[in-house]
Amino acid sequence: MTPALTANAPAKRSFQIDSKYVAPILISCILLVGHFTTGMLADWQKTAVCIIVSILTEAIFGYITTKKMPHLASAYVSGISCGILVRSAEWWPFIVAPALSVISKYVIRVDGRHLWNPSNLAIVLLLLLAPQSMYTLSFQFGNHVWAGIVVWILGSVIIYRLKRFHICATYILCFFGFALLRALLNHDMTLANAFKFEIAPITGPMYQLFIFFMITDPKTTVHSKKGQMLVAFLVAAMEFLLRQYGKNWNVHIASHAPYFALTLMGPAANLIEIYKARQAKKSAISPAR
């Protein structure tokens, strides 16, 4: 090869992972680290059922809708999320949750956009409709602090590379701020101990899935960076209100406040953005007066 050709040859790109596989890799890491340190999976067979049901449902509905086989990475994430988060002595929630998660993506759309995070919506529906049969993962990493640190670092780096770290950072900062407020309002113990008690949930796999996958889901978040940060703040604020006052309405709402907060605030933000887009489109095509 001549020097000229060598100079003009494109530089070799460093190794990169297809963005479609980033979420499956990260959620698999959370699953493995969480299970081998805290026994996060009560029954691996039920998690396997969730994954299989999710992938099959995605393949069927995707093919019916588009007449071609869809990419199954999203279905894997939904299936494994439900497998990790759903807890039940019965088998049916591990079939219904991933099926609802995937079906919602095809059934509930406005102007071609999803309104709810699929896994989050499925979990909330089951908590509301069958609270006697289903609950969710809620424990922390306990003494296995290093395991949580590894997952948080890995997740943060990946989310940063995907340019969505600002969503996670906004939510985490707001969570800590509202945790301090709850510590001031609700406890007779010292402020330091009360604050530790209030921030404890964020150390667990449940919040890792929520922060890295649910509130950052590109398909169900608003488009602007400022809008995404505002919604993250509103989700944290709604979570605070549901934790603080939700037990007066329904104990499950208070216990699973993050899911319900995102269910309320995420679609509301998407609908506002969709409405603004419609108005802008009407203004653009309307004849000048």
Keyword list:
mainly alpha, two-stranded antiparallel ribbon, disordered N terminus
The number of strands is 4
Q: If you compute it from the alpha carbons, what radius of gyration comes out, rounded to the nearest whole angstrom?
A: 21 Å
Order of helices and strands: HHHHEHEEHEHHHHHHH
Into which percentage range does the β-strand content fall? under 5%
Mean pLDDT: 84
* CA-CA gap between termini: 64 Å
**What class would the helix/strand composition place it in?**
mainly alpha
What's the overall geometry? globular
What is the strand and helix layout of this fold?
Elements: H1 3-8, H2 19-38, H3 44-66, H4 73-85, E1 86-87, H5 93-107, E2 109-110, E3 113-114, H6 118-129, E4 135-136, H7 145-161, H8 165-186, H9 191-199, H10 205-214, H11 225-245, H12 251-255, H13 257-285
Antiparallel strand pairs: 1-4, 2-3
Helix pairs in contact: 2-4, 2-7, 2-10, 3-4, 3-5, 4-5, 4-6, 5-6, 6-13, 8-9, 8-11, 11-13
